[in-house]
């Protein structure tokens, strides 16, 4: 729950509007906030764990730009994290040679 709240308030609620004002370009706010969101997830260790959050960051940034509703974006982030966690708990990683 805290990851969704903190990350969305920081990236979409704080960074995105300020970057848009600094560069006077709505797409700069979307791109930079999504890029920072992807980089924030770099500590997980794989490139896919940066690319996927980058893509999700773009989607969330576009949604926030269109609807200006941070609560919905926070709920979407929470649900994405929750579903991902549930799926990871269902998969037995010992049998997957990739991991």
Description:
The chain is mainly α and 99 residues long. It has one domain (2-95). It is built from four helices and no strands. The protein is globular, with a radius of gyration of 15 Å. The two termini are 26 Å apart.
Concise account of the structure shown:
The chain is mainly α and 99 residues long.
Number of domains: 1
Which percent band covers the strand fraction?
under 5%
Q: Summarize model confidence as the mean pLDDT.
A: 88
Spans of at least 5 consecutive residues with low confidence = none
Please state the overall shape, judged from the principal axes of the Cα atoms: globular
- By secondary-structure content and strand pairing, the structural class works out as mainly alpha
> How many E strands?
0
User: Largest beta sheet, briefly?
Assistant: none
Radius of gyration: 15 Å
**Percentage of residues in helical conformation:** over 70%
Element order: H for helix, E for strand? HHHH
What gap, in angstroms, lies between the N and C termini?
A: 26 Å
Number of helical stretches of at least 4 residues: 4
Give the tags:
4 helices; 99 residues; mainly alpha; globular; 79% helix; single chain
């Amino acid at each position: 729950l805290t990851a969704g709240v903190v990350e969305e308030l920081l990236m979409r609620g704080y960074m995105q509007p300020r970057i848009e004002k600094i560069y006077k370009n709505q797409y700069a706010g979307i791109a930079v906030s999504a890029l920072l969101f992807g980089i924030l997830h770099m500590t997980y260790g794989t490139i896919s764990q940066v690319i996927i959050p980058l893509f999700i960051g773009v989607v969330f940034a576009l949604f926030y730009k269109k609807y200006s509703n941070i609560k919905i974006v926070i709920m979407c982030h929470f649900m994405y994290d929750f579903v991902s966690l549930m799926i990871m708990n269902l998969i037995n990683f010992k049998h997957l040679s990739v991991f």
